[in-house]
Amino acid sequence: GDKAFAQFLSDEIQEEKKIQKHKSLPKVSGGWELEVHGTEAKLVRKIAGEKITVTFNINNSIPPSAEEDTQEQQKPDEQEPELTSTPNFVVEVIKDDTKQTLVLDCHFPEDEIGHEGEEESDIFTIREVSFQPTGEADWKDTNYTLNTDSLDWALYDHLMDFLADRGVDNTFADELIELSTALEHQEYIKFLEDLKSFVKCQ
């Protein structure tokens, strides 16, 4: 059984490498520095007295509906539909002279189809906003967290503009999806390789 499993994994790894779009991770334009720790990625950018960091984790970042479709309709020689990784991401804005960090929790809505009548719909939304003490690893649940569900639209628009002014806009979000998808695929291939070595190890 293990032999067959290892053989299957070998074939699978070859297939996945064949369809791998990026041999190295795509860059995000706008002077963002990328740090990757396993499944977590962090993009950092410094502008005039501020440091902006965007953090996301590729685990559970592929929408569930995509995975179910591939199982059912796939014929042996059909190209698998492309899986896209759309992770939640957290934007932190740190101003040099304050002890507080503004934290914006963003995500990609499941239905990314723009609402009728809106010219330019944003591909990501802000879910929550809070202040956290700068430099502390653990965020406090006791800090007020603003949920955007019940938020005044004008205030929400200003928050989106605030992010856009710092380089977090639709273009950035598109590039983040591309980066995340490439990273997810890379990690998946690595996982298959580790699994193969594990299965073969007698």
UniProtKB/TrEMBL annotation:
Q: Where is this region: Disordered?
A: 59-87
MF annotations from Gene Ontology: complement component C1q complex binding; kininogen binding; transcription corepressor activity
Principal subcellular localisation of the protein? membrane
State the compartments where it is located.
Answer: Cell membrane; Cytoplasm; Mitochondrion matrix; Nucleus, Nucleolus
Q: Which GO terms describe its cellular component?
A: cell surface; extracellular region; mitochondrial matrix; nucleolus; plasma membrane
Q: How does it sit in the membrane?
A: Peripheral membrane protein
GO BP field:
apoptotic process; complement activation, classical pathway; cytosolic ribosome assembly; DNA damage response; innate immune response; mRNA processing; negative regulation of mRNA splicing, via spliceosome; regulation of complement activation
What are the protein's UniProt keywords?
A: Acetylation, Adaptive immunity, Apoptosis, Cell membrane, Complement pathway, Cytoplasm, DNA damage, Immunity, Innate immunity, Membrane, Mitochondrion, mRNA processing, mRNA splicing, Nucleus, Phosphoprotein, Secreted, Transcription, Transcription regulation, Transit peptide
Whether DNA damage counts among this entry's keywords is: yes
InterPro entries from the entry? MAM33 (IPR003428), MAM33_sf (IPR036561)
Against Pfam families, the record matches this protein to: MAM33
Keyword Calcium included in the entry's annotation: no
Q: What family does this belong to?
A: Belongs to the MAM33 family.
Q: What is this protein called?
A: Complement component 1 Q subcomponent-binding protein, mitochondrial
UniProt source species: Rhadina sibilatrix
| Originating gene | C1qbp
